[in-house]
Amino acid sequence: MKKMNDLVDVLILDDSDYVFKILLKRNIEIYDIKNSAFGTIYTLSFSSVNQIPFEYKVINKRGLSKLVCLLKKHLYFFIGIALSIIVITVLSNLVIKINILHNDSDIRELLSDELKKNGIHTFMLRKSYSEIQEIKNNIKKSNKDKIEWLEIIDDGMNYTVRVERREIPSLDKEKKYCDIVSIKDASISNVLVHKGQSNVDVNDYVKKGSVLISGEIKYNEETKAYTCAQADIYGITWYKVNIKMPYDYIDKVYTGVKKTNYSLEYGTTEKIIFKNHFLKFDTKKREILNFWNIKINKRIESEYKLVNKRYNDSDIEKEALIEARKKIRELTGVNASIQDEKVLQTDKYDSIIVMDIFYSIKEPIGKQVEREIPLERTQNDGTS
């Protein structure tokens, strides 16, 4: 049987019985016959159309033949699209500027020479991610004494190069030591000393600025050595958080309706191929084709509506506590943990609720502070 992509629908106005017999006589295979208001429609193979001895009209082509016809009809359009893609591809992969960010002109000149040696210069095609990483490692390896850190950022048609110079410490720098001091009023909960001499024990109360771990090592009240104190010190600290929250709020409600769209992405630019169907929607994007850094993405658009809602008393108190915990995390950081939470006061009004919440927090409280070794001490040691 002929493949479906080699079939066409032909409209013939002559008497159907007579046409049918003639077509069979000429060994023209007929795959389907339909009657219409204008005549009889025969489904034939595309290669046999020229053998029809009657006046006919091709009303539909299928599969490959239809595609060929479409390409011929819109040839210049498709050529234009192809040329546009080629131009966009070349331009989007062309590096027109290299920015080296550093105040030292010697470092900028060094990096410029190293980049050229490794094939990075203006009016070149962009390198792949793996090539960039290899070039970056090569430059750092060959300049160990000059470069501490290097990053090459692909920024569209530009490369931005960030660099930190390696600072070699001066041998003539004065000797110093470090204490660890408290950055907050707290009750000590954990002490783990790596270097230095501890001045505190668990459950001790300390004030902000107190020396927790000393870099001055003493024995029998006599200073024996100096070091830079290192320790992990946690303390219990206390906070009061005030939260004001409105009863009325706007909620994002998904309708469950989704549409598929596609986008063309090159460099930092993304163009949506089809018109957006929704006024408000969220998008999940997945790359389905990447050709010379021109990406075609499949986008699933999920419609949502903004709905006015109002909390009841129970829910608004829960939401206020969630907001208070977020505020505590912002104040104390990721290494802190809540030990106790207590609502001190709650005031409810027509439009808002006001809550005061007490928190007991376990968090790092030590800060390393550099000190200078007393001059008489260095002289006695013969180190100056």
Can you tell me about this structure?
With 384 residues, the chain is of the alpha+beta class. It folds into four domains: 4-73, Alpha-Beta Plaits; 94-165, Ubiquitin-like (UB roll) (Roll), CATH 3.10.20; 175-247 and 311-384, no CATH class; 248-309, no CATH class. 24% of the residues lie in helices and 48% in strands. The protein has seven helices and 24 strands. The chain has helices at 16-25, 63-73, 75-92, 105-117, 129-142, 313-332, 375-381, and strands spanning 7-12, 30-35, 40-45, 56-61, 94-95, 97-101, 124-125, 147-155, 158-165, 176-182, 186-195, 197-198, 205-206, 211-214, 216-219, 222-226, 230-246, 248-266, 269-272, 281-291, 294-310, 337-348, 352-364, 366-372. The strands form seven sheets. Strands 13-11-17-23-22 form a five-stranded antiparallel beta sheet. A four-stranded antiparallel beta sheet has the order 2-3-1-4. The chain has a four-stranded antiparallel beta sheet with strand order 12-14-10-24, with no helix packed on it. The longest helix has 20 residues, at 313-332. The mean pLDDT is 85.
Report the C-alpha radius of gyration, rounded.
38 Å
Strand content: over 45%
Give the helix tally.
7
Average pLDDT score: 85
Main sheet overview:
5 strands, antiparallel
**Oligomer, anyone?**
single chain
Structural class of the secondary structure composition? alpha+beta
The total count of strands amounts to: 24
Low-confidence stretches: none
Shape: elongated
| N-to-C CA distance | 100 Å
* Residue share in helix: 10-25%
Domain count, please report it.
4
Strand order of the largest sheet: 13-11-17-23-22
